[in-house]
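Workshop exercise sheet. Pairs work together: one partner reads the sequence aloud, the other fills in the structure field after running the prediction. Swap roles for the next sheet.
Pair: D.N. / O.F.
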Amino acid sequence: MTRAGRVLLILAAVAAAGIGGYWFGGRGVSLRGPTAATEAAQAVRPAPGGPVIYYRDPDGKPFYSLEPKQTPDGRAYRAVLASEDINFDGQPTPPSTAARETQSSGGRRILYYRNPMGLPDVSKTPKKDAMGMDYIAVYEGEENDGSTVKISPGKLQRSGVAFEPAKLRVIAEPVRAPGSIQLDERRIAVISLRAESFIDHVEDVTTGSEVRKGQPLVRIYSPGVAVAAAEYLSTLNGRDAGALRGVRQRVLNLAIPQPFLDEIERTRQVPITFTWSAPRDGIVLERNVVDGQRVMPGDVLFRIADHSVVWAEVDVAERDLAAVAEGQSVTVRVRSYPDRVFPGKVALVYPHMNPATRTVRVRIELPNPEGLLKPDMYAEAEIDTGSGKPVLSVPDNAVIDSGDRQVVLVDKGEGRFEPRPVRLGRRGAGYVEIREGVSEGESVVTSANFLIDAESNLKAALKGLNDAGAPK
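Structure field:
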């Protein structure tokens, strides 16, 4: 080697030594032996302790296990303790995810991890799914509780879960039915004669007029009534009590008003005509006579109806008929007065069904002191079929009804929920009666219960797949 070559080799060696020293100095690494400070730090460093969190490959490869395991060549995996320090900064490493989950669960052991999306996929080690979501830890004891599902507080808050206790309430269960206003048949009076007569004079009363009981309506002359009245007066003057009773009854059989007989007895004379008065308060529905008219027995002179009480006749659907009974309270509304409510009672459930509409007519009796309800008005009735007694009930939206089962979710506290099958009763005003399955005071989920029910169904499915799907 030439002299120039040897010089170049020496210079390269010196440069390499300088660069290496600079690098070690920048890294804080001393080329000298351990100092006293280093030995003291190593002496005071506590020994690793705490429970075994997981096991890792003895060669430091990224292979982990929650249970003791061996490498293919027979070497045991190394146990990693909760407090073990494995960093190079001199600061303790925070507990691993598995350690935090174990500590937050009261020291319970994690059995496995399940897919966060509910897929039938479980893992013995922490992992993420294809979307980057962490698998959910399943702790010891949870896999045996198949009757409850546990939801984390954060998930409950995000889901908007709401609760309401089961209470005793009076459930209003109205049956709605359409119909119309009709007159009370018992409050209609007809004025008709039993003998051939002539109308002498009709008072100023027309169809639609309101009349009072005892108000004069028409003055009548009747030959048959006059003959009977004369015979009655003759017998009355003769003071024959036995004959008087028979003659008086003959006059009464002609439906002569009592004032007419009173006048004969008072004046001892037979009037040529007699006045017929209104038998009751009401509205004149018909006036069929005029002055001088001849009327025959049975002809209707006037028809008068009392409107102070009317009927609402409504048609109740066949499916609601079993809940309707006489005496139940009813509220009726009519189109003419949409802001008014007219209270009444069920007076009669008719015994026959309309085969064309599959409805049954129900009669409702309504006070009408102001006369606002007119015959043939359209009406909407709401029949209160409730018993008036408080029953155990929950909100309608607390019940999950799949068609073949009805379930409510009972809050067991600490994010735990128990699906509880129930037997339902009456419904009304947003509540449903619970006849079996829930006790008074138990809180049930009223919002986001479908999400919790889906979680419960998922847990039941995972429990069934646990033996077959969990890694061995």
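Discussion prompt: The first helix runs from residue 3 to 26. What would you look at next?
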